[in-house]
Design brief:
heterodimer, A: 113 residues, mainly beta, 7-stranded mixed β-sheet, 4-stranded antiparallel β-sheet, 11 strands, globular, B: 112 residues, 6-stranded mixed β-sheet, 5-stranded antiparallel β-sheet
């Protein structure tokens, strides 16, 4: 049981480039989340999804897009990379019920130069 | 607007000592309060959680104390060990809520 898998683990982008951060989970969880964590800071919610075909904005959605075509996958798209998007990105998932724990991947460390 | 405030930002404790992390919340609609532990290079993982109708919950060396009237809760790590060195996040979620509200995190360093 792999849990939540994020790829790539590391990436360096140039300003203005685009990329997709991949996230997949094998636990059949309906809820999925994308967070960013800046150095020494807490977790900020970018986007989340309550099921396939449904997405919603979190605290810091600007500059990002998501899609949820399947239960398993929840990719995060950066269209025009900016230095302010340098961060560690975490994907998480949980099953139904607000008391269920969120299961996190190990993150993607992204640097934009 | 930070709805869950966490303090301190960092703390250093000697092996065998007690680590105490405090959180305060504003929204009385929150009804579940988990704590997450994050080791360097890893994603956070659920450590322990509490409901507001319980004043204390203990799991091994980790204890949550909850004060509903003060809208505060805290994590106590008893007999702290070097392996407890990590970042700890408190969080809160509303009943039937979709998303957690996280505190800012506390970096704990346990010195041998």
């Amino acid at each position: 049981n792999a849990g939540v898998t994020q790829t790539p683990k590391f990436r360096i982008l140039k300003i203005g480039q685009s990329m997709t951060l991949q996230c997949t989970q094998d636990m059949n969880h309906n809820y999925m989340y994308w967070y960013r964590q800046d150095p020494g800071m807490g977790l900020k919610l970018i986007y989340y999804s309550v099921g396939a075909g449904i997405t919603d904005k979190g605290e810091v959605p600007n500059g990002y897009n998501v899609s949820r075509s399947t239960t398993e996958d929840f990719p995060l798209r950066l269209e025009l990379a900016a230095p302010s998007q340098t961060s560690v990105y975490f994907c998480a998932s949980r099953t139904g019920g607000h008391q269920q724990p969120q299961h996190f991947g190990d993150g993607t460390r992204l640097s934009i130069l | 607007q930070q709805q869950v405030k966490q303090s301190p930002q960092s703390l250093i404790v000697q092996k065998g000592g007690i680590s105490i992390i405090n959180c305060a919340y504003e929204n009385t609609a929150f009804d579940y309060f988990p704590w997450y532990q994050q080791f360097p290079g890893k994603g956070p993982a659920l450590l322990i959680a509490i409901r507001p109708d319980v004043s204390e919950k203990k799991e091994g060396r980790f204890t949550i104390s909850f004060n509903k009237s003060a809208k505060q809760f805290s994590l106590h790590i008893m007999d702290s060990q070097p392996g407890d060195s990590a970042t700890y996040f408190c969080a809160a979620i509303k009943a039937a809520g979709n998303k957690l509200t996280f505190g800012g995190g506390t970096r704990v360093l346990v010195k041998p």
